[in-house]
Design goal:
Residues 1-11 have a biased composition (Basic and acidic residues). By secondary structure, the chain is α+β, with helices and mostly antiparallel strands. Helices cover 38% and strands 21% of the residues. The chain has helices spanning 34-43, 82-95, 99-109, 132-153, 164-170, 190-217, 221-226, 233-243, 279-292, 337-348, 381-393, 395-402; strands spanning 14-15, 47-48, 56-60, 71-74, 112-119, 175-176, 183-189, 249-254, 272-274, 296-308, 316-324, 330-335, 353-360, 367-376. The strands form 3 sheets. A 6-stranded mixed beta sheet has the order 1-6-7-5-8-9, with helices on one face. The chain has a 5-stranded mixed β-barrel with strand order 10-11-12-14-13.
Length: 408
């Protein structure tokens, strides 16, 4: 019955299909907008090298070996041969060994906003980089995505354990490519993940502006306003993880051509840059967010999953699995002797309890202080049967924890 500390990264997001050879059939020409295909080719480094103006463009892939391959991509469907040209271009992409070709095909199949991270790491002997560099880049990117997902659910300087399950679940559809040459790309499907991409875009710019303001004036006031844009302790910690040990890092959010630009966002923006000189300000802001986030008054309904006290009488500590009232998975509560006895009775008969108190930010919103009003709560038969099953699985532990007092 343990839970993840807030300092740990989110569960890894799924690897993107571009990590493996493209094995699916190319999209049907009738399903592809020529303008979207052209925009994706340009985004992924392909070069337009002529073509009939107004009819089609000739595109070659990035890299030194690109001159031997080219695609003819129509600019619109205004001409009779447009579908034929599209079909030939898509077939050529599916047969290409270029990673960028596979990225374009997958982006056509799953319209996605793309988030890119770059970090500049000093090269080792022979230009090689330590094997840990890629892992650090992936870890920082995951933490940044989780921070953005948390900010789509609530504006807070410090989220702690709140909303983490829902935020982590929202990353299940995010696809991530391979990290190479200090670059990593995440593909966030527009249908389910655009709010995350928008929030990260806004938060990164707000964080950059707040850092610049602090370095110019010495004041941290801009970080208070930046919370509304999605900046938080979690985001500053992710930025520290991204920049630490590098000569600098950049993050860019590029919108899916098929979906257009979200309201209030720039059509195209330069990457947001952070440097090692920003680290002291980011660390100060993160500590400030964590220290100043207030406690939250709550009324929680939860199932008792652990009870402990030092003797057969007196106060004891109870751990609840939260069913309602707070967006955290578990809380710990210190109860007086009577409230502890009520909690023990409720668990023995398969009932959750309801309790009021203040959810403290210290420790990540995992502790309820000032607990009072502990009462059992009636539940339906299915939930009660499940709680009773948990009791029987842990019966020896609870008998020891109650010290013979729960049944008095």
């Amino acid at each position: 019955m343990t839970h993840r500390p807030t300092e740990e990264p989110a569960r890894p997001v799924r690897p993107h299909p571009v990590d493996t050879a493209w094995s699916g059939a190319p999209p049907e020409p009738g399903e592809v907008d020529p303008a979207v295909l052209g925009a994706l080719l340009r985004r992924h480094g392909w070069q337009r090298r002529g073509g009939a103006p107004g009819r089609y463009g000739r595109w070659t892939p990035p890299g030194p070996g690109g001159s031997g391959t080219s695609l003819l991509v129509p600019e619109s469907r205004a001409f009779p041969d447009s579908d034929d040209l599209l079909g030939e271009a898509l077939l050529a992409l599916s047969r290409s060994g270029s990673p960028s070709a596979r990225e374009v095909l997958v982006s056509l199949a799953v319209p996605s906003d793309e988030i890119r991270w770059w970090h500049d790491v000093p090269a080792g002997p022979g230009g090689a980089a330590p094997w840990t560099v890629e892992d650090r880049l992936r870890t920082a990117a995951r933490r940044m995505l989780l921070a953005a997902a948390l900010a789509t659910r609530a504006r807070a300087g410090y989220h702690g354990a709140r909303h983490r399950r829902a935020a982590a679940a929202s990353l299940e559809n995010v696809l991530v490519g391979s990290a190479a040459d200090g670059r990593l790309t995440a593909f966030v499907p527009v249908a389910a993940g655009r709010p995350l991409a928008v929030r990260l875009h806004q938060a990164l710019h707000a964080a950059r502006e707040a850092i610049d303001y602090q370095r110019a004036t010495g004041g941290m006031d801009a970080f208070d306003a930046a919370v509304e844009a999605g900046v938080s302790h979690e985001l500053t910690e992710a930025l520290v993880a991204l920049v630490r040990g590098t000569e600098g890092a950049r993050i860019a959010v590029e919108w899916a051509p098929a979906a257009g630009v979200p309201e209030g966002c720039a059509p195209s923006a330069e990457p947001v840059e952070f440097s090692p000189g920003d680290l002291p300000v980011l660390r100060e802001a993160g500590a400030r967010y964590q220290h100043e986030e207030p406690a939250v008054p709550v009324r929680i309904t939860g199932a008792v999953v652990r009870m402990r006290r030092s003797g057969p009488r007196g106060e004891g500590t109870v751990r609840l699995r939260v069913l309602a009232g707070a967006d955290v998975p578990h809380v710990r509560i210190t109860l007086d002797q009577e409230a502890y006895r009520i909690a023990g009775h409720a668990h023995l008969v398969g009932l959750p309890v309801r309790v009021q108190g203040r959810l403290e930010s210290r420790g990540g919103f995992r502790r309820l202080t000032g607990a009072h009003g502990v009462v059992p709560v009636q539940v339906d038969d299915a939930e009660r049967d499940r709680l009773m099953k948990e009791l029987h699985e842990n019966l020896d532990f609870f008998e020891e924890a109650c010290g013979g007092d729960c049944g008095d």
